[in-house]
Amino acid sequence: MNQATLRNNPDKQRYELVDAGQVVAFAEYRQEGGALALVHTEVSPEHGGKGYGSALAKQALGDIRAQHKKVIPLCEFIAGYIGKHPEYSDLVKTAE
């Protein structure tokens, strides 16, 4: 993994992780009030097992924090990442 960078693609409603000009992973979301529901994460097969999924989760959650939004982790990968990294647990939207 080189210098993978995150970009938000609101037209496709997803965060994209770009490395060497290529989208190597993405996390689809939908707006739900003041929160983002992360519904699906995917890493391209040729880039699997190289840490791109974790890099995507970390950077996307950091962006959500910077926007002062909450997250609804519907995607199992994102939910698991938050479970392993409790520093992001404050971002999880609780039931009202």
From TrEMBL:
Database matches in Gene3D superfamilies: 3.40.630.30
Q: What Pfam families does the annotation carry?
A: Acetyltransf_CG
Q: Which UniProt keywords apply?
A: Transferase
Any idea which GO molecular function terms this record carries? Answer: transferase activity
User: Which positions fall inside the N-acetyltransferase domain?
Assistant: 7-93
The highest taxon in the source lineage is: Bacteria
Q: Which PANTHER family match?
A: BSR4717 PROTEIN, PROTEIN NATD1
Q: What is this protein called?
A: Acetyltransferase
**Native organism taxonomy:** Bacteria, Pseudomonadati, Pseudomonadota, Betaproteobacteria, Burkholderiales
